[in-house]
């Protein structure tokens, strides 16, 4: 490979996946007060994959740079990424503003330029908004090839190309592209590691740069307005039938058969 990998891994701070989100009283979004936050699971997988690529060939990867766009509290998420193996990080401080995928992609494109990244590995979606758009938008802005929903990633050091197996309806598909490249990760790509206590302590000394959207020359104004957020309707309780005949009769009476 003519040049080493400079991997950028975006990570997002989200409500912990083990917690059931609740709509806030104002019905403007989910309740965030007194709720545990953690790294988005798909982002965690992306970070793990970047670390595994380096572990597979230490001479192949020049650096792994983690980036997050969020409030100042997202520093915790970046410190977790640094403790797991990222070398340095950047926080784009947007306060409490909820960013839309296009704004995130524009910010990431600026960081890619600043870091001279040639490989971006990011989760296919965040579990808070489930947009599944940022990776595709970023590839479009950069005019780079993209491989989405990756379940396997293989870097060919000699040719400078990357082979990605991705999940599609009814099976899997294998694509191959040369760097630079954007990859979005699926759940079955790997199992993320835990950060050890010594690495958590070491992460406190790793670089964490804080910038504002204005520093990057990006307008993050919202294009959409959330009018109202409500809980899904409560499902009615099911019933237990005593026989197949009773089941058929009930299905007929409900117009299901």
From TrEMBL:
Keywords: Electron transport, Mitochondrion, Transport
Localization (cell): Mitochondrion matrix
Highest taxon above the source species: Eukaryota
Biological process annotations from GO: amino acid catabolic process; fatty acid beta-oxidation using acyl-CoA dehydrogenase
Required cofactor names: AMP; FAD
GO molecular function: electron transfer activity
SUPFAM superfamilies in UniProt: Adenine nucleotide alpha hydrolases-like
Family note: Belongs to the ETF beta-subunit/FixA family.
Free-text function comment from the UniProt entry: The electron transfer flavoprotein serves as a specific electron acceptor for several dehydrogenases, including five acyl-CoA dehydrogenases, glutaryl-CoA and sarcosine dehydrogenase. It transfers the electrons to the main mitochondrial respiratory chain via ETF-ubiquinone oxidoreductase (ETF dehydrogenase).
Official protein name in the record: Probable electron transfer flavoprotein subunit beta
């Amino acid at each position: 490979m003519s040049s080493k990998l400079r991997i950028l891994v975006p990570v997002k701070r989200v409500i912990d996946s083990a917690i059931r989100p609740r709509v806030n009283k104002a019905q403007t979004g989910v309740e965030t007060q007194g709720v545990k936050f953690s790294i988005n699971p798909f982002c965690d997988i992306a970070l793990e994959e970047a670390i595994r690529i380096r572990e597979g060939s230490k001479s192949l990867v020049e650096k792994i740079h983690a980036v997050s766009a969020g409030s100042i509290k997202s520093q915790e998420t970046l410190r977790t990424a640094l403790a797991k193996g990222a070398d340095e990080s950047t926080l784009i401080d947007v306060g409490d503003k909820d960013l839309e995928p296009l704004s995130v992609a524009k910010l990431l494109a600026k960081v890619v330029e600043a870091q001279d990244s040639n490989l971006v590995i990011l989760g296919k979606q965040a579990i808070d908004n489930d947009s599944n758009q940022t990776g595709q938008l970023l590839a479009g802005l950069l005019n780079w090839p993209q491989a989405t929903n990756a379940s396997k990633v293989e870097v060919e050091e000699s040719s400078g190309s990357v082979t990605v197996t991705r999940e599609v309806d009814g099976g899997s598909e294998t694509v191959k592209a040369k760097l630079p490249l954007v990859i979005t990760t699926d759940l079955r790509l790997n199992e993320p590691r835990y950060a050890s206590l010594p690495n958590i302590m070491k992460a406190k000394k790793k670089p964490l740069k804080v910038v504002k959207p204005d520093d990057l020359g990006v307008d993050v104004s919202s294009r959409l307005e959330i009018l109202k957020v409500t809980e899904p309707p409560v499902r009615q309780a099911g019933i237990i039938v005593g026989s197949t005949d009773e089941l058929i009769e009930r299905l007929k009476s409900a117009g299901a058969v």
